[in-house]
Amino acid sequence: MFSLTDSIPISSPLSDIRLNFLSQSGSRNLRQVTLVCRRPRVSFPQRNICRCSTTEQPPPQRRKQRPAKQSDEEKGIDPVGFLTKYGITHKAFAQFLRERYKSLKDLKDEILTRHFSLKEMSTGYELLGMHRNVQHRVDFLEWAPGARYCALVGDFNGWSTTDNCAREGHFGHDDCGYWFIILEDKLRQGEEPDKLYFQQYNYVDDYDKGDNGSTIEEIFKKANDEYWEPGEDRFIKSRYEVAAKLYEEMFGPNGPQTEEELEEMPDAVTRYKSWKEQHKNDPASNLPSYDVIDNGKEYDIFNIIGDPESFQKFRMKQPPIAYWLETKKGRKAWLQKYMPGLPHGSKYRVYFNTPNGPLERVPAWATYVIPDADGKQALAVHWEPPPEHAYKWKHKHPLKPKSLRIYECHVGICSQEPKVSSFSDFISKVLPHAKEAGYNAIQLIGVVEHKDYFTVGYRVTNFYAVSSRFGTPDDFKRLVDEAHGLGLLVFLEIVHSYAAADEMVGLSLFDGTNDCYFHTGKRGNHKFWGTRMFKYGDLDVLHFLLSNLNWWVEEYHVDGFHFHSLSSMLYTHNGFASFTGDMDEYCNQYVDKEALLYLILANEVLHALHPNVITIAEDATLYPGLCDPTSQGGLGFDYFVNLSASEMWLALLENTPDHEWSMSKIVSTLVGGRQNVDKMLLYAENHNQSISGGRSFAEILIGNSSKKSPISQESFLRGCSLHKMIRLITSTIGGHAYLNFMGNEFGHPKRVEFPMPNNNFSFSLANRQWDLLENDVNNQLFSFDKDMMDLDENGRILLRGLANIHHVNDTTMVISYLRGPNLFVFNFHPVNAYERYTIGVEEAGEYQVTLNTDEKKYGGRGLIGHDHIVQRTISRRADGMRFCLEVPLPSRSAQVYKLTRILRV
């Protein structure tokens, strides 16, 4: 019994062919061949299909028409939904969103002409790059449409450009520019090749499964003896016996031998009825056990009736899979017979012959790369450790928290020693510290392979490779696994907004042409950073980038991504333009619609394949709809970064006297436009303040506390107080996420400066001074930061709704707001202290101080006595609320009160 589908896909050199043995019964060996194709399908007319049943059935009804596709409204899709949500009425932007949605639908349709689904679109790493094949070989696949010749060169073949190659027009190169090269494993001396061309080896799991000594002939004989019933396999042994018998029954022993002698044959139904009439008086045992019932009508599908006994026998027959599996061998057998054609640790590159001449490149999908250094070229490294030595995961992903406290880190500077630190250094030093400090996630920058160390990792050269400066791929897996064991999520700062322009190690001019991965001309080059800009409208570029996101989740179990510098990709001017906030700036001719479509696809794919993944958007222009659902016209991010907050604090600290600080400006900057505030990620300072040529807040406020610098006690108290207050208000007034850069929580006094020519490649500033935690000042700042994290962990500050900011006074320089049962009061005045300052509250009761920046254990003055720790409300309206508190407010201090007892009034 078989079915013929109504459409047959056309195969290509890149198609996967899977043979699924469905059943073997009686004299039939049924096999279904499924061709997995990545090209448009060609449809053929539908054929008649035979169905089996044990009882007679009425003629089937004609197929019902497929229901019409659901409209966008029925699916809950509104391309301009978020505009209605926020009350934005801008016709040009609404029309832009509708056109963008239509372009998205067209793009998805175009993708599905080459891929079965978006999931397949985002799993290119399963085919491209270097992969072990079960048929004792290694397969290499690379996309280089501009090349004429492709070969693999490396230490495994003496860097020969002809030993392992594929040429244009030959097997291994298709119309889309994908090159396919096979590296056969080498037979050991004295071993014979496998007799079966499809002989498979389970290289990973069945290490102890070796060759049992049975030959293929013995396995097949065992299958015939144990599986087939007596006489059941005779038609397999004599393949022409069935045809000869049918011919003799139809035409007799002396039937026609040529086409000229063959008379016109009646149709099959007539011949079948004639045969039935001739044999109607035969014994029942001579009649077939099946019959065709059509009731004299023509149907696309005929019914076949069989007696229950033979039908049940047919159904109980199982395919001989066990004998097929017996032909498979484990890695032990592979080791006995073969040597790897590409050993683990081999160094290689891909060689192209292009219209502009020959060139060598590091493969775009390489997973481990040694960048060029000391005049040596960059090399890809084949990372395939033996299964018994490969890293095995121990911990599951932590549960997705409702609020994020992110500890941002750079692996290379995590050690106190003047060196490039390793993943092992990070595991031993930073992970326990981040856990102790109370953070629930770490965010890693500079992990993806890049050419120059001083670029911090933003000029990425190899998007699928962990930077070899810090360790091996397995070392990074151990880092992620250990972080998960401590309950820490691991985020990766991903740079898909641009790429390094270096030709020898990156993707620029990868196949000799200027438009392989990037735009040509001015659009393909960043105006100020000297980097290349991706061609997001190209399907193969989308394939590369979407697969890259999925790769880090699947291979390294990362929990989310921080998308770096979206403004540089969203606009053709790379975000270097003055923005006034007018909606026209988000839909004019400078907006890159292709980049927007990529971000929408990235979020849809990531959240569909990995529902718990977290995506964070870093966009200085705050493009409308960043964190709104894609079904409502948004881009689909989970959080967006408020970049203006840290810039405001830095400007206040460096350029504005303390008494001129505007409380209204501080509040308005921290909460933004109140749209999607719950999706906002805030930070007082991240790596930019200390890495990009600036100074950390601690260096501005306190100086280098490791030395006896001539700083007055008053200046010292001011620095410590503002350091704590800035962090407290930034972390608690905004959304559900807060971030801090490694070391700033304890007031790291020095900026970060990577070794480069202008500092004689010094590592003196490319580290973290963890020994400062032994100093009183730094330890006190760290204690406060840790208690601030505990406040959120125990009081669940960040996961609550928006802060109710009810008191902002520029004259007294006091800010107060409520978040749940917690009351936050800040006095930024440099001199004035208030003994009984009135603050409104909604609930009557007793409020107790849970965190006070002025406590002595945090380096404060301890001006609030124990008799003021608990405050009782007064029945008097204030700040638009029914009750109020009269609280003591020392200058430059902040207090957090919690409602501990409700009083009935």
UniProtKB/TrEMBL annotation:
EC category name: transferase
MF terms (GO), sorted A to Z: 1,4-alpha-glucan branching enzyme activity; cation binding; hydrolase activity, hydrolyzing O-glycosyl compounds
EC number: 2.4.1.18
Catalytic activity, reaction form: Transfers a segment of a (1->4)-alpha-D-glucan chain to a primary hydroxy group in a similar glucan chain
Pfam families in the cross-refs: Alpha-amylase, Alpha-amylase_C, CBM_48
Signal peptide: none
GO CC, one annotated term: amyloplast
Location of the Glycosyl hydrolase family 13 catalytic domain: 420-769
Keyword Metal-binding included in the entry's annotation: no
Pathway field: Glycan biosynthesis; starch biosynthesis
Domain of life according to the entry: Eukaryota
Localization annotation: Plastid, Amyloplast
Family membership noted in the UniProt record: Belongs to the glycosyl hydrolase 13 family. GlgB subfamily.
Protein known as: 1,4-alpha-glucan branching enzyme
Native source organism of the sequence: Nicotiana attenuata (Coyote tobacco)
